[in-house]
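Reopening closed ticket. The problem is back. First fold of the pair:
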Amino acid sequence: MTNSHHLETIQSSSLKLANSHYENFPVASVFLPQHLRTPIALIYSFARQADDFADEGELTVDRRLELLNDFRDELDLLHAYIKPQTAFFNTLGDMIKANKLPYEPFYDLLNAFSQDVTKTRYANYDEVLDYCSRSANPIGRLLLHLYGQSNTSNTQLSDNICSALQIINFLQDIAIDFKKNDGKQRIYLCQDEMAAFGITESQIQEFVDEKQTTDDNWQQFMLFNLRRVSALLYAGKPLGRILTGRIGFEMRMIIAGGERIISKMSKVNGDIFRFRPTLNHWDWLVIFVKALMKV
């Protein structure tokens, strides 16, 4: 296979991988300028592959960390201007150089996913935000660099949006995360807040197993979390108007998607065990109109 065929295969598979994993938020979508779709897909493919090392399948902890370290080694080679070992990193490295992207966000993502393998509890909101600063915010920062819109103000707005989207995913995937990590249930909910609302891990197990339906404590706890993440997403919302053209439209679509998921979780009082929210065709129409009208 020629180098050009290798490149086309990696690019097409990256686009497919990026879009197949993000059911509720557009990734490298048709609304973006054509020249940005492949770079964005490569970034998401890097993140998705690394995240899958941490999460998917029946791998041991050691094997998960080994695979993540392999990615880190490849990044080290790129950073040192040495040819990497794999075709994917060759393609990724060319894209990074062509767009003058920083390497730090890629390392931050790997650090976050490595943490996922070994850390299953979060004591408080500061710990959750610290995780988000490495698991989600780097994506937004890389996109701003691609857009040529990276500055202090835009970066803060982007961080707010990305952290909010990450926390929204945590909330909608409580049951899914609870089953991960080799039987040591992963909980991204703040331990101090669970205690304050009288939520126990055994209760969550009962909800997951459908042996018990959610009670008032759980509803109040989730509505508290939903109000907070809604405020965080709102704090980043101006970025959708600051970014112009199709890039701004894409950003407004992403924000509106987050708002829609929050609304769906609120309507079921946070019972994501029986009513995990996903976006349907009607939701996407609403999101499209909101993005178009800049509301």
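Second fold of the pair, where the issue appears:
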Amino acid sequence: MTLTELKYIVAVAREKHFGRAADACFVSQPTLSVAIKKLEEELEVKLFERSANEVAVTSLGEEIVRQAQSVLEQAASIKEIAKRGKDPLAGPLRLGVIYTIAPYLLPALVRQNIKKTPQMPLMLQENFTVKLLEMLRTGEIDCAIMAEPFPDTGLATAPLYDEPFMAAVPSNHPFAALQQINAEELKNETMLLLGNGHCFRDHVLEVCPEFARFSSHAEGIRKSFEGSSLETIKHMVAAGMGVTLVPRLSVPKEALEPQKRKKSEETYVRYLPIIEAEGVAPPTRRVVLAWRRSFTRYEAIAALRNAIYACELPGVNRLS
């Protein structure tokens, strides 16, 4: 068997489709299929159950695929060890970031990374937490910036910062006249949520479980609507469709400094700090950096953390 054959079976197990797996490996589908058939004949086992619509991994195949992934990681680590002997910061670092962090952290992070370690460009991947965890497991990315909690997959993690949530309300809403608000006061409002798959949606529902009840007649809440991104949600708030919670770093700087805003810059969204209510602490999320324990470029991880800490990150509690 060869490393290439192992790479092919891992790709098919991930994609559940021979065509997509071939595309991911940059080979033709016949080339991939022939290689996998050859491996199955060599091992005298069936790795995949093939059907018209999907490919399923057999029970024994799952165990073999896991071992294949481990072998590929070990083979990759040999190259990484060799690189470390020269310059551990030389070469790209493949970084994944969840959707509700990337637009607000990456502009500053990329600048700091270029300034501090120009020899280590960031190859960026924006995705959902569950997808980034899978990409970490399969070695498609080296590390990821995500919000806890997420399933324990044996990853190494380092806390970066605790980020408070803020309430976003239309500028013509009665709440807009307030200086602060608590979660209880939001429970009678129309709540705008991110769609399924976003971990920030789950964070909001932890703060106000009532918002999970999608009923126009539910007591204490009129209805909840979904948007595809935080920026889309903010536009919906500005249009007067409801209120929402947002992470602190997503709040525009000028929105919190009205005295510096030009007269021509009219704002349609008001952002309010959320305070403790009935002994319940204000909602926050912990943002961490995660990487495989087998990843050997320790200096690259340390350099990335230093670049993150060098970012301004207004309003968050930095962790070391």
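Update: turned out to be a display glitch only; the data is intact. Residues 59-86 form the longest helix (28 residues). DSSP finds ten helices and twelve strands in the chain. Please close again.
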